[in-house]
Amino acid sequence: MITDTDVTVDSPLIFEHSRPGRRGVLPPRAPEVDLAALLGAENLRSEPPKLPEVDELTLVRHYTNLSRRQIGIDVAFYPLGSCTMKYNPKVHEAAVQLFADLHPYQDPSTAQGALQVMYELQRDLGEITGMDAVTLQPAAGAHGELTGIMIIRAYHASRGEGEQRRVVLVPDSAHGSNPATASMAGYQVKEIPSGPDGEVNLEALRAELGPHVAAIMLTNPNTLGLFEERILEIARLTHQAGALLYYDGANLNAIMGMARPGDMGFDVVHLNLHKTFTVPHGGGGPGSGPVGVKARLAPFLPVPVVVKQGETYALDYDRPQSIGQVRSFFGNFGALLRAYAYIKMLGAEGIKKSAALAVLNANYLKELLKAEGFRVPYDRICMHEFVAQPPEGIKTLDVAKGLLEMGYHPPTVYFPLIVKEALMVEPTETESKETLEQFARAMGEVIRKDKEWLEHAPYSTPVRRLDEVQANRKPKLRWGG
Ligand SMILES: *Cc1c(COP(=O)(O)O)cnc(C)c1O
């Protein structure tokens, strides 16, 4: 018998289960305040919001069923290159709970523990990257980039070179957010081609450098998963031209504890705590993109900076050259806590070991995929990731769709742009040898399927092949009723 309280397991549409007056939770009674006086009568709702009215169990099933329509790192291997989908240790959530009652408007004297965490995290990230000062404010990688480039702009302006330095150089293998950031900050973007070895072409760089260049944005290892071996020469040339060197450190997985951007000559770096430092991501946030700088750029950091005065932690707003505040309050504090817990649990040795294992896993998987018939265009020792291609005649898109049928999230596809039919694979250090071997076998199985199967996969996922143009241009983001 079907009753009102029955919920079909397949239906995620919670609105269909709404019944007037049904409740899962009783919110606390609103305090007796005159909201119209407080907020202005014109800002008050005239009708209640059309929210579904359901019992608690229906709500739990709604979200649980939605979660089962996803492939996430807690469900299956997720080798999404450039995104570092590593395991997010659950113990970090306990650290977050400890601070659950804190409010950002609290007086700093009553939030010393939180400020200590931020102070130590600034210091630890500075140590890991070889930078002298760090801000924890930016809310994501691209936001960190924008903050970093604004700091660079303020630096050149302070030396009277703001007008003259109008160009930011970006290699052709760069993550799309790099040129986007530079142009958002008002710079002209100039692309530097890669050489046949997959590294920055030094001749091309030399030709572009000059008194009109503000910075070059690089990532090392680059997006082909290769270490730029001529980085010291690149740094020397850049500084000789009066420009600064920006490090996209979204993925520090291959080098943390091993090598430091600061020692390579970089002046500014951003990190993605939601990649390298195990803060969960994939659903659009909340992330965290701290920025580290060399001492000469420290005066331009956003305010406030967490400082230690004697035994007391404080927020320093008195920084006249600061670019200002780039986010409300102090950044995504929950993300900062998880990264702090991760760093403290691993310690210096653990961080180093995790980088070594990330590189070992990537190289092992690269060899396994070659044995299965995949091509590797830049076939040398890779860092934390590598770029492969399916055999001639098979489309990368079909491989990705076929993998979904096998229960795996596909690697990053069609990126970097300089490799045709690219599959960018990043296994991370948290996967076992057996998982890598199973995945390689699944990849091999996919490319041996017949054409008909490949072109129509996946078969058993909640949605199959979407009209990608429509999905992009006219996404349906709400339930239509
Ligand atoms: C992910 C990534 C970014 C952007 O980070 P978001 O947090 O998504 O804004 C920038 N650069 C590289 C190399 C990345 O992998």
From TrEMBL:
Catalytic activity: N(6)-[(R)-lipoyl]-L-lysyl-[glycine-cleavage complex H protein] + glycine + H(+) = N(6)-[(R)-S(8)-aminomethyldihydrolipoyl]-L-lysyl-[glycine-cleavage complex H protein] + CO2
Gene3D superfamilies hit by this protein: 6.20.440.10, Aspartate Aminotransferase, domain 1, Type I PLP-dependent aspartate aminotransferase-like (Major domain)
Keyword Oxidoreductase: yes
Co-factor(s): pyridoxal 5'-phosphate
Any one Gene Ontology BP term: glycine decarboxylation via glycine cleavage system
Residue ranges occupied by any Glycine cleavage system P-protein N-terminal domain in the UniProt entry: 99-302
Domain of life from the UniProt record: Bacteria
Top-level EC class as recorded in UniProt: oxidoreductase
Listed GO CC annotations: cytosol; glycine cleavage complex
GO molecular function: glycine binding; glycine dehydrogenase (decarboxylating) activity; pyridoxal phosphate binding
UniProt modified residues of type N6-(pyridoxal phosphate)lysine: 275
EC nos: 1.4.4.2
Domain Glycine dehydrogenase C-terminal residues, every copy: 355-451
Keywords, comma-separated and alphabetical: Oxidoreductase, Pyridoxal phosphate
Function: The glycine cleavage system catalyzes the degradation of glycine. The P protein binds the alpha-amino group of glycine through its pyridoxal phosphate cofactor; CO(2) is released and the remaining methylamine moiety is then transferred to the lipoamide cofactor of the H protein.
Protein family: Belongs to the GcvP family. C-terminal subunit subfamily.
Alphabetical list of NCBIfam families matching this protein: PRK04366.1 (NF003346)
Subunit structure: The glycine cleavage system is composed of four proteins: P, T, L and H. In this organism, the P 'protein' is a heterodimer of two subunits.
Protein name per UniProt: Probable glycine dehydrogenase (decarboxylating) subunit 2
Organism of provenance: Calidithermus roseus
